[in-house]
Amino acid sequence: MRGWRGKILRVNLSKGKVLTEEYDANLATKYIGGRGFAARILFDELEPGIDPLGPENKMVIAAGPLTGLPGPSLGKLVIAAKSPLTGGYGDGNIGTMAAVQMRRAGFDAMIVEGRAEKPVYIYVEDERGYILSADGIWGKTSFETERALKEVHGRDIGALVIGPGGENMVKYATVVSEGGRSGGRPGMGAVMGSKKVKAIVFKGSKDISLADPETYDRLIKEAYEDIRGKDGYGFWIRQGTMMIIDWANENGVLPTYNFREGVFEYSDIINGFAMEAAKIGRRGCPYCNMACGNVVLDFEGRESELDYENVAMLGSNIGLGHLGKVSVLSRMADELGLDAISLGSTIGFAMEASEKNLIKERIEWGDFERVKSLILDIAYRRGDLGKLLAEGVMRVSQVLGGGSQDWAMHVKGLETSAYDCHTVPGMALAYATSPIGAHHKDAWVISWEIKTDRTGYTEAKVDKVIEFQRVRGGMFESIVACRLPWIELGFTLEWYPRLLKAATGIEIPLEELLYNVADRIYALTRAFWVREFGQAWSRLMDYPPKRWFKEPLTKGPYKGFTLDATKFDALLNIYYEKRGWDSRGIPRLTTLERLGLKDVAQQLSKFVTLTQ
């Protein structure tokens, strides 16, 4: 095999064994890598109904055939497991030298299974893996942990670490790298903590064999030049995703006060221009020439890496209009290993619960000091409220009742990322049908939607959601590559089949990546969900938060607007039909067979009745 390494490292913590396994070339051509590998491995190896935080769960770390090679935004990997937050398929990608070093160490993927008796970390170097004691680093923050590991193993390592949030199995704990790269929103850090793994360190020296290295070198030079020549490149370098704050506020979709509103009165204090005034540097994934991580000095004089999502969710969504203070909260999330999106949603929910007297604690909107204290309570599961909020908004609302489930902002248990959908049914559909829960990564259609028929419920919107899912959640998540060059600057998709051919020697047309590989991965992740829930599975799991249907906006250009439940239901029907799924949202037998998933159909039929 060229491009692919052909090897997976399996670490069994319960037995203390580390094994190298070769995999069939068909896995590579059918699933490419990343999410494709992870979904296939988890579906095959996990028993339905296992405890996500038990030793039976497995964590898969998977790269793609371009990972570790020079090229635009190719330094990424996927981390996946059964999610403790949602109970379904969970994953996230993260841009880090760990991706590069894992491939240099000789592996395309890694499977971590079982549970260690005492805290450990895993060290991987040049086709060998070791399970080492984490006595000296367990209990440290993610930043402290990585610094300590670099002192031992060298500055050039790639490290995936957890903070106290992961150690204490906060349901939305993430995996962190390089002081601000964070991934795995559905609780991948909690899974790692449940296995008593503090860190995974990669170090490699092996070159990746390419089918046509000369063509590959020429292509990446041209690709980098193409990106630098795009019209929006200069402004992107200045603000990155932080430019979205102004855009979202002007268009009435900036999450504000737990998604009650789409405009924030202090948006100009937390926007991209405010960030520019405080900016001291940029960070990005390996091999990226359009780095999106904006580094500022926060209110406490420490470095904090900002992007749109964490600023919106820890700013406007909790009523905090002070960028320096928002930066402190964002940095705390990274240090403690907590997902900033879910954290901001959970705190916003707690503030509204306090306002409505569903909890005894007083947490005022925008109360910076109280929020700092609350974040620590969550990460360390301190006190009754900290323990409760560590479970995520779905479970908190189930405990509190009082109508709070209507304003618990999540889909399938994953908190909604930073776009209010009172007025954008297409984006609401994207959240509803994401394979991990309410995340924008798979189908960020909102910009296109606002430019076209913003409030309409049309077949064209369904087509756009599926198109974006195929590109973003299918192709990019399996290669594994960043979608920002394409979506933000217009870097064309045709580059990727060309790079794949030069790397692997295999002609994989763009249509194959989008219509077969991507659809296969979406059907497989959906099958994982349905198998887990069995007869309890319902199309109601594919609905966005009730607040967007029941509570009209009271401010901004779209005051009075809500989503229409009947029209959304019709939109969901169209989506299912185009996907080849039945009215329950379950892939039909014929669809699974067409996508080469006959074995998946046989498995799934044990839990639900499949339609033709």
- The number of helices is 26
Terminal Cα span: 37 Å
Q: Report the biggest beta sheet as strand number plus sense, adding barrel if it closes.
A: 6 strands, mixed
What strand line-up does the widest sheet have? 2-1-6-3-4-5
Structural category is: alpha+beta
User: Any idea how many domains?
Assistant: 3
In helices, the fraction of residues equals 40-55%
> CATH superfamily name of the largest domain?
Aldehyde ferredoxin oxidoreductase, N-terminal domain
- The radius of gyration over CA amounts to 22 Å
CATH topology name of the largest domain, in short, is Aldehyde Ferredoxin Oxidoreductase,  A, domain 1
Shape: globular
Uncertain spans: none
The count of strands amounts to: 17
CATH class of the largest domain: Alpha Beta
Return the average pLDDT rounded to an integer.
97
Give me the CATH architecture of the largest domain, please.
Answer: 4-Layer Sandwich
Strand content: 5-15%
Notes on the protein architecture:
- By secondary structure, the chain is of the alpha+beta class.
- The protein is built from 26 helices and 17 strands.
- It folds into 3 domains: 7-203, 4-Layer Sandwich (Aldehyde Ferredoxin Oxidoreductase,  A, domain 1); 240-419, Aldehyde Ferredoxin Oxidoreductase Protein, subunit A, domain 2, CATH 1.10.569.10; 430-604, Aldehyde Ferredoxin Oxidoreductase Protein, subunit A, domain 3.
- A 6-stranded mixed sheet has the order 2-1-6-3-4-5, with helices on both faces. The chain has a 4-stranded mixed sheet with strand order 8-7-12-9.
- α2 (34-45) crosses α19 (459-479) and α22 packs parallel to α26.
- The radius of gyration is 22 Å and the shape is globular.
- The protein starts with 6 loop residues before the first strand and ends in an 8-residue tail after the last helix.
- The model has no long low-confidence stretch (mean pLDDT 97).
